[in-house]
Structure formats: structure tokens, C-alpha cells
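== Folding the chain ==

***
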Amino acid sequence: MMLIITKKQKALFTQTLLVRKIKRYLSKHLPEMLKIYPDDKLEVFIIKSIDQAIYFGIQSERCQAKWTYLNAITNGALIRVQGVRHYMEQSELSPDDKVDRLMRSIAVSAKLQERNIQQIWS
């Protein structure tokens, strides 16, 4: 007897693996988020974020994980952040490159805020 896996089953399996990978990514970079969200709600949030990423043409799992991270730190409102939707819909760079740039800009912004806070308290 031969086992037959349908395209739908394969897609579901692939998505389940990706959700697990992104959960691990979030647990490393946003451990406090995993404490707040029940597992089923976190999975729904991740799946919705992956769907958004795919909508914008983000292809790599790495960048889909980054998109989910960005979506998490904005409480699910990443595409409502001023200029993000417009930026993602421009065509000069690949969607994956845009996500990398968004991550870098967030990191720079966080470092500047940290520096400003340290200057205030110094």
C-alpha cells in the first residue's frame, strides 16, 4: 500500500513546521511575548503574520520570521504603522530586502532611544 500525501496536506505540514520555527525565533528574541499569549492564540498570530508576509511577497522563512517579530512588537499593527504599507508596496527592492532594512531601522531606533535614556539619567 502506498501512502499518498495531497498538496493540501503538504502545505499544512510545511506551515506547521514554519510556525514552530517562528515560535522558536520569537522565544529567543521576544520571550515575554510567549509568556503572555496562550499557545493557540500565538499560533493564530504567527499564521496571520505569515499570510501578511506572503501578501507582500516576502519569500524566505528568515524574513517571514522577522516580519512576524516586527508585527509582534507593534501589537499586530505593523501594516498600520505610518509608511510601512507604502514602503512594502514599492518595487525598488525585493520584499525580503525591505524587511531586512525595517529590522535594521528598528535596531538603530532602539539604540538611539537607549542612548537618549542613558543621557537623561547621567
In short: The chain has a mean pLDDT of 84. Helices lie at 7-29, 31-36, 39-55, 61-73, 84-89, 95-121.
